[in-house]
Specification:
Strand order of the largest sheet: 6-7-8-3-9-10
Order of helices and strands: EEEHEEEHHHEHEHEE
Distance between the termini: 17 Å
CATH topology: Rossmann fold
Helix content: 25-40%
Strand content: 25-35%
Radius of gyration: 17 Å
Number of helices: 6
CATH superfamily: P-loop containing nucleotide triphosphate hydrolases
Shape: globular
Largest sheet: 6 strands, mixed
CATH class: Alpha Beta
Number of domains: 1
Length: 231
C-alpha cells in the first residue's frame, strides 16, 4: 500500500528526513514513535503530499509522489485515497458537524447529498455524537472535535488513514474517548464505504501504550532516520 524509497528532506539546512526506506502492506497498522524532532510528523506530511521532499519517492494507494514537487498538497490522486487526522483537528469552523463530514464524499466521490448525510449520521451515531450533527466546531469539546475529525477522514472512503498525534492536544480525561474511536477504526468497525482493500493506518504518537495496543508494527525514528522496525 505504501512504499518509501530514499526519502530525504531538509529545512533551512537541517536534515529532517535522512534516507528513509520502508514498505507498508495493505491492512497494516503502523505506529511511528520517537522523540520530538525525529522527523515523525514530517514523514506523515510527505506521505499525504502536504510537504515537498528533496530526494527519493513515495508510492501510496497507487499514486507516485516524487521529489522536487513545487506544489505539495495539491496532488489530485491523493484527495480521495488518503485521509489525514491532525493534532489540532482542522475542522471547517463555519460548517456544521454534518457539513464537515459530507463535504469530502460529495466533492471527492460525487456522493449524492442525501446518501452522504445518511452515512454521516450513521457514523455519528456509532461514536455517540448523533445529537451534535448541527453543532459547529466551536460548540464542541476537544474530544468531540477529534472524533469528528476522525469520522471525516473515514467518511471520504480513503484506503489509507494518517494520524498525527491525535490525542496529544487533549486533556487526559478526553483522551480515552478518542482512543476508543481509534480502536474501533483499527478493528474495522467504522467504515466509510464498501472497500475492496483493507484500511491501512499510520499513526504518529508519543503514547507507547496506545501503539502497543493498536499497531501491527512499530517504527522508531531518531534524527530523521528509521532506526528500528518491530512487529
Amino acid at each position: 500500500m505504501i512504499r518509501i524509497r530514499g526519502l530525504r528532506k531538509t529545512f533551512e539546512g537541517r536534515v529532517v528526513l535522512d534516507g528513509v526506506d520502508a514498505e507498508i502492506r495493505p491492512g497494516a497498522i503502523v505506529a511511528i514513535l520517537g522523540p520530538s524532532g525525529s522527523g515523525k510528523s514530517t514523514l506523515l506530511r510527505c506521505l499525504n503530499g502536504l510537504e515537498a521532499f528533496d530526494a527519493g519517492s513515495i508510492e501510496i494507494a497507487g499514486q507516485l509522489l516524487e521529489s522536487g514537487a513545487r506544489r505539495p498538497g495539491l496532488h489530485a490522486g491523493l484527495s480521495g485515497a488518503v485521509g489525514m487526522v491532525f493534532q489540532e483537528f482542522h475542522l471547517f469552523p463555519h460548517m456544521t458537524v454534518l457539513e464537515n463530514l459530507t463535504l469530502g464524499p460529495r466533492l471527492v466521490r460525487g456522493t449524492p447529498r442525501a446518501d452522504a448525510e445518511r452515512q454521516a449520521q450513521g457514523l455519528l451515531a456509532l461514536v455517540g455524537l448523533a445529537e451534535r450533527s448541527d453543532a459547529r466546531p466551536a460548540e464542541l469539546s476537544g474530544g468531540q472535535k477529534q472524533r469528528v475529525a476522525i469520522l471525516r477522514a473515514v467518511a471520504q472512503g480513503a484506503t489509507v488513514l494518517l494520524f498525527d498525534e491525535p490525542t496529544s492536544a487533549l486533556d487526559p480525561d478526553l483522551r480515552e474517548e478518542v482512543r476508543d474511536v481509534l480502536r474501533r477504526v483499527a478493528r474495522g468497525e467504522l467504515a466509510g464505504n464498501e472497500r475492496s482493500t483493507p484500511l491501512t493506518l499510520v499513526l504518529v504518537t508519543h503514547e507507547t501504550e496506545l501503539a502497543r495496543e493498536l499497531a501491527t508494527e512499530t517504527w522508531h525514528m531518531r534524527d530523521g532516520k528509521l532506526v528500528e522496525r518491530r512487529t
